Amino acid sequence: MIKRFLVFLLVLTTFLNGIYSFSEDKEIPARLQTEVIKLRHISFTKPIEETIKTIIDTDYSGNAFFTFDKKNNAIIVTATNVTIDKIKRFINKFDVKGIPVNLKIYILTESKEKGDIKKLPKSLVNKLEKINIYGAEILANAFITSKTGKSVMVSLKDPDYGTQFQITFFLTEDGNKIGLYDFTVYKITKEKVQAYYKDKPIPSQDVYKKWKIIQSSYSISPNDPLIIGISGDNNVDYIFAVTMIK
């Protein structure tokens, strides 16, 4: 009987010690470490910055932060190991060596009357018909060249309204597909266009006004154009159509 009591007492003591140790561990602050993540093939863009901010906010220490070393094109992160690993995985997804690719971008608007869209690539016409656009006008078009892993900022001007648009894309690793880098389309104010093209640092809130994307797909191939619908001021809807040229 005494032997059983002693065994019970030993088990109870071990259990209580475990609870006490666990409560002590909770008082220990999270260990932070600093790591330099160098960008090899991409630049530090606004979408990258916003994504890293989101990851940093999830760090359980509550004290994580990061800075960007412009001279060395590197991100300096102070956070827990878990958060640093998340940021590394995110960066590695896009920081890859490039393959040159040519793209053609159309800005289209829906027409009330059936317009002539037969001049567009057949695959694009089929895609437009599938999303029930019975006619479309080409407002502007542009050619751009990019590389895998590089973000591409495309700025176009609507000749009818004088509106500046900007949209960001990225190329996939095999160089055969392109997708949206982030889900934001920007309207660039006329007052800031000149300074913008001179690559002067301008606070984003003074340059851009966000427009909501109302329809999008994630990637395209030469036979499957990317269609992006956006809604802007005064309920004016625009359709961006992107095709790849080999």
UniProtKB/TrEMBL annotation:
InterPro entries: NolW-like, NolW-like_sf. Gene3D superfamilies: 3.30.1370.120. Residues 34-97 form the NolW-like domain. This is NolW-like domain-containing protein.
